[in-house]
Amino acid sequence: MARMETESPPPVEVPGRVTDQRELVERARRGDPAAQRVLYDAHVDRIYRLTFRLTGREHMARELTQDAFVRAFAGLGSFRGASAFGTWLHTIAVSVTLNELKRLARQRAREAPLEDALTESRDARPSDPLLRQRLAAAIAGLPEGCRTVFLMHDAEGYTHEEIASALGVSPGTSKAQLSRSRAKLRVALADLAKEWET
Amino acid sequence: MTNTPYDFGDDDVTPPHDDPRFDAWIARQAANVNVPGATPRDDIWTAIRAAQPATHAIAPPTPRALPFRRRNWRMPATIAAALLVGVGVERFLLTRDGAVPERTTASQVASRSPATVATTTAPPNDSPATAAPPSTSASEPASSGRAAQARASSRIPATRGSTGVAGSADTAAVSRLYRLAAEQTFTQAEALLTAYRATNVAARDSVAARQLGSWGRDVL
């Protein structure tokens, strides 16, 4: 389960000593590659998993993870430390990912035969191909906010507080959107009702 | 709906939902959708380092580079504006009274020393014609000259008010007084500007700045 820091970020382990995250962020802001690498190692797995869940493609997940870190390191001067670095980084990652998906959607609208990146997840591990394709298509049909909340909560295990911080909404909104997402998915997958009723 | 840049769809089309079995099932199934593999850490890090600009490190601030708004230009500008206003008022008054001011300098004023204006020890209740102007020396503090100028100015209405016998002689005396006041103002302004230019800008401290400011106000 992925967890972001919320109130008080835990110190990050550095070989030989424990370094306060604030100090790490300050060093990274000054361009210290070692500090940036420590922050990267502490957060890259969750960011990569999230971008992969949202896009379904490995190369997109790589590029978006890279983009999120580059933007975060370049924008550390504006990071005031009101939230944890991980929370701030997740906000950036979600933003760049959804913007890229919007750009792809616009491109698909112009070029109709373009392959749907969301409904066909070529890089995902095969489980039950038919069910997985149906589910992926239903999830892709959700509004972007609902889809993000659903995948962050049900697929990656983020709490509503963490989702709210990343999306800039209240935890109540996150809960409401998760309920709406499930309701829409239930309608979209109604012909598979025997799957969950048995 | 919510104050967020993300699209959460339309609330109106949301069907009511209360199905714990579906919730449990969809949560299990969602974990199998778009399952990521191992994170290619080194590849992504290499790409990040390549994408970062070479000059990402924040440069130390240049010690002597001050933004324009912090430069000490307000006081000189205020003094210059005050001088311009003073000269303008003086010229307006002279023109209105019909007197054409001569082009004089401080040295000419000092060398002229007319009898009616030479002494600086005249009693306060002297007549305007013999009222003594303050010294025009550039090194003298401005406050004394300013006070004398004020005294001279305060007598002008009385002179103007005395009709009849005074006649053209009074008018000439008033014009002379105005000219003297103008010359004194010019001299003080000249001295002020000379002192300001002679002051090393880099070494100017707050005391000198206050003194110049006080001097400028006196000239005004």
What labels would you give this structure?
heterodimer, A: 198 residues, mainly alpha, two-stranded antiparallel ribbon, 9 helices, 66% helix, elongated, B: 220 residues, 54% helix
Note the run of SSEs of chain B as H and E: HHHHHHH
Put simply, the count of helices of chain A is 9
> pLDDT below 50 for ≥5 consecutive residues: which ranges of chain A?
1-18, 119-126
Task: Let me know the number of strands of chain A.
Answer: 2
Choose one word for the global shape of chain A: elongated
Q: What is the CA-atom radius of gyration of chain A, in angstroms? A: 18 Å
Structural class of chain A: mainly alpha
Adjacency order of strands in the biggest sheet of chain A: 1-2
Helix share bin of chain A: 55-70%
Percent range for β-strand residues of chain B? under 5%
What composes the largest sheet of chain A?
A: 2 strands, antiparallel
Tell me the fraction of residues in β-strands of chain A, as a range. under 5%
Q: What is the strand tally of chain B?
A: 0
Which structural category fits the helices and strands of chain B? mainly alpha
What does this structure look like?
The complex is a heterodimer of chains A (198) and B (220). Chain A has helices spanning 21-29, 33-55, 58-74, 85-110, 129-140, 144-155, 160-167, 171-188, 193-197; strands spanning 12-14, 17-19. Chain A is 66% helix and 3% strand. Chain A is mainly alpha-helical. In chain A, helix 1 (21-29) packs across helix 2 and helix 4 (85-110) crosses helix 7. Chain A is built from nine helices and two strands, in the order ββααααααααα. Chain A has a two-stranded antiparallel sheet with strand order 1-2. By secondary structure, chain B is mostly helical. Helix content of chain B is 54%, strand content 0%. Chain B contains seven helices and no strands. Chain B has helices at 20-30, 41-51, 74-96, 106-112, 142-161, 167-198, 206-219. The longest helix of chain B is centred in the C-terminal third of the chain and has 32 residues, at 167-198. The radius of gyration of chain B is 39 Å and the shape is elongated. The relative contact order of chain B is 0.11. Chains A and B meet through helix 2, helix 3, helix 5, helix 6 and helix 8 of A and helix 1 and helix 2 of B.
